[in-house]
Predict the structure.
Amino acid sequence: MFKEALEIAVNDMFEHLGQEVVFKSRNGETKSLIAVIKQPENPYEIGESQIVKQVAEISVRVADVNPKIGDVVEVNSKKYKIFEEPLLEASTLIWRFNATLVGE
């Protein structure tokens, strides 16, 4: 019962906060799905220097895709590449990962 209620809540969140994206895996597969995207500009550190790079925190449903480092998410005219290992949320229904802007 709890699992069903959680699934309903997650689906509701994606329906109201999500946007349609195109997910492209490293092996060339393309899939349209709904993702929740936060797009702050965060400092990204390389050694002792800091550069400001647009990094998006992206959430997708486990039922939709299994993201990996190197996969690309296209939203509107922006392309984001996953640069760190996606994490499975405690609910086991959502993948969350960070991706950096690689093109517009």
